[in-house]
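Can't attach files on this board, so I'm pasting raw text. These are the components:
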Amino acid sequence: MVDSLKVRLFKEKLFLIGIAVLTISTVLPLFHIMFSIAANGIPVLLKGGWDFITGTLAPPGGGLGGIGPAIVGTFILTVLASLMGLPVAVLTGIYAAEYPNSLIGRATKTLLMVMMEFPTILVGLFVMDIVVLPMGSYSAIAGALSLAIVMMPYVAVYTDEALRNIPPKYREGAFALGLTRFKVVFRVLIGLARKGIMTGILIGIAKVAGETAPLLFTAGGATRVYFAGLNRPVGAIPLLIYQLVQQPYTNYHEIAWGASLLLMLIFLAIFLPIRLSLKEVKL
Amino acid sequence: MKRTLIVLAVLLVAAALCGCAQNNNPPSSPTPTTTATTPSTGKTIIIIGDGATFPWPQINKWIDVYTKEHPNVKIEYNGGGSGKGQSDFANGVVDFAGSDPPLTKLVWDRLVNHPPAEGKDPLQFPDIIGAVVVCYNVPGVKHLRLDGPTIAEIFMGKIQYWDDPAIKTLNPGVNLPHKEIIVVHRSDASGTTDIFTTYLCLVSPEWNSTIGAGKSVNWPVDKMGRGVAGEGNPGVVNILKTTPYSICYTELSYAIKESLSVVAIKNKDGYFVLPNATTIKAAATHVSSHIAPPNAGYKENLRQLLNAPGKDSYPIVAFSHLLVWKHYSDPAKGKAVHDFIKWVLTQGQNDKYIVTGYVGLPKSLTQKLLSEAEI
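---
Top answer:
Structure tokens for the assembled complex are below.
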């Protein structure tokens, strides 16, 4: 009797340890990435100083220069992509959640899932065909549109899931008060689901801020011109990192580390405050 | 609670309106925006280029120096690859392009017969010379000499060990180990592979008939289990450095930066030469006559540029090219592009503006090109 209890306790401990080891090995790469970016990036930022953030690209083998145009470009692209993608995506998510059994509702959900896994490089090629070639130039608009297409399914699926997780009694209660369907959705349900929706929006924004592939054929890239108009090429930090690491010059590799660190800091700066300040809605 | 919801709703609507406005923009904007940017000629001119990644550092160096001297011109060059450069140039998406291989007749005809609104009459210039070098990682061996046929047999897999008689006779006195040779090659389609295999076709009839030349080829060593593939030049170089008794081909700049051991190759005249500025320039001078005039770029043939004659000539050199239009629809931009090209072919070829690992064009060649281009 006592023996079998011991065996069971031992099994429990063993299982817990096993889970802990697996959890650590799952998060370990994340911390390793963050650590190596910080270890390699911080010296570059310290050496480059303010110029690294505002300046333009250095020649090969000639100092650090700066990545100003890429930072400006990433900012423009992310804002523009959010303006294009978020409204459509949130409304799509609401539709899929509100009409889960209709043909269009189900089709929307399925298509969103497909879109989520769609190769982003093809999105870039598609936008190149419909925007870049007719306009005759790479542009911020083209880059932002292709980022918006990448962003939309994430935001829509998160919105849909967040709304579906609200227990039906709230919806029924709201209807019982005599509210119209529009008011039920936009005044009651969205408020309850705000944490989930906001998470989706943040994941969408963070994802596109770090995307490279959709920009290869759309944004054009910039290392010296900060901003020349929405219809002209812009830079982006991931695009710059991608170009720099292919080169055999140590100063380009250093710039790439610095740029990676900045990208990570921008990402954390968007993500953490909003994520932490949002309070869970108790249902 | 209620207030935040209203704020959220207002934001959502506002964002939706902006979003729609932005979404409508692309299809409707092309005509007004492109014409709107052209009149601003008195101010800063922005030139956009795209194309080959191989000359990217060198072109960046030129841009850096040139735009400091000419603050009213801003130039961007993005390394998207030779293929992308060619198609972007043909579509009028960029003002100039870089391409490692010279244009084919097919592409050239398209540029001549169906030019974009951006410009017409294409011109092609070589702008910089690079070299494909053979590197090895054999502990204890500092100097290695090989000739074309031996290199071909090594990369074909026919020579299996480092102490093969063929290698030994070329390297008397060198202590070669009895170890299997690991051949490292590119996994991706690459201009470097194209140049290297074209050279092997020229020096080895067997390579020419069984494997051939191309951006990617079927490596027989892979089937023998002695071939390893790496992605891009950095990938190949990394494998070489971590694999003892391996051999690879890569661009000169990577070999210099990574301090790799480089093979001295026997040239057409029978001399063993290492790749450096002198030997590469010598080869370029000897094949200058095979460089096509700028207005007939498709006539250039890679095979005529490799295995150059001459005592000092390094046999595997490669020219990278720039593409521009002779006539631009925006004359101010056209002048700016032509000024930059002329600067690249004159002062830009000055040794102090040439990045390590690249070699400038011989002066006789640039003068010939500039007089033929008439820009």
